[in-house]
Amino acid sequence: MKNYCIDVGNTFTKLGVFEAGELRSVKSVDNLKSLKSLINGDLDVAKNYIVSSVGADSLQISKELELDLSRLHHLKWNMPLPIKLEYETPNTLGADRIASACGAKKLFPDSNLLVIDAGTCITYDFIDSQGSFWGGGISPGLSLRAKALHNFTSRLPMVEISSEPKLVGTSTKTAIESGVFNGFKAEIKGIISEYRKKFGDLKIILCGGDSKWFDPDRDIFVIPELVLIGLDSILTYNVNQKK
Description:
Elements: E1 2-8, E2 13-19, E3 22-29, H1 32-40, E4 47-53, H2 58-65, E5 72-74, E6 84-85, H3 95-107, E7 113-118, E8 121-127, E9 132-140, H4 142-151, H5 172-199, E10 203-207, E11 220-222, H6 226-241
Parallel strand pairs: 1-4, 4-5, 6-9, 7-10, 10-11
Antiparallel strand pairs: 1-2, 2-3, 7-8, 8-9
């Protein structure tokens, strides 16, 4: 039995195929038609599905993909989960935050964890060694910082950061690049330091598109496919509950 984990994001959709808990393949597409052809290309294999969406209706997505409804799960905060949500407003909790927390707990089941998802926003989530999710923080991501400077001022240009900028910007453009990038990195490093002071023994897991700007370090792990790993963990947990 294969697990098909579908993560519908703001700009593209990822399909992760798992077998016995191992990630076998990852594909990214920008439309549902392409995703449908990927799923239907493996007709001879029995599958379970889970759909996670940050914006679109996951039920509508599953209908468009013509998935086997008897083997389909939609990620929701109130479904059975391998972690315990202690968040005060779980109904407002993003599906990607739930999935990444479950992925981290699968990889490091006995540790205190700080999960940092560096995407459009930066989210910080603390999961204790008992598997309880407590929440953390949300702040603007790298691209959002650049857009804010451009959109909320009259003369600052829009910049896109494709390589690590120099520390001392010698033009307005390079000064924005330096401020945005180094502020982004300094914030994350500072938050990590504060969590380490408070919780001591702590593993840090980074994911999201801008996690590429960080190198693995002492108890710091960069795991780009953490959300997919979490979706597989949630799907397996729910399938086993039915047995």
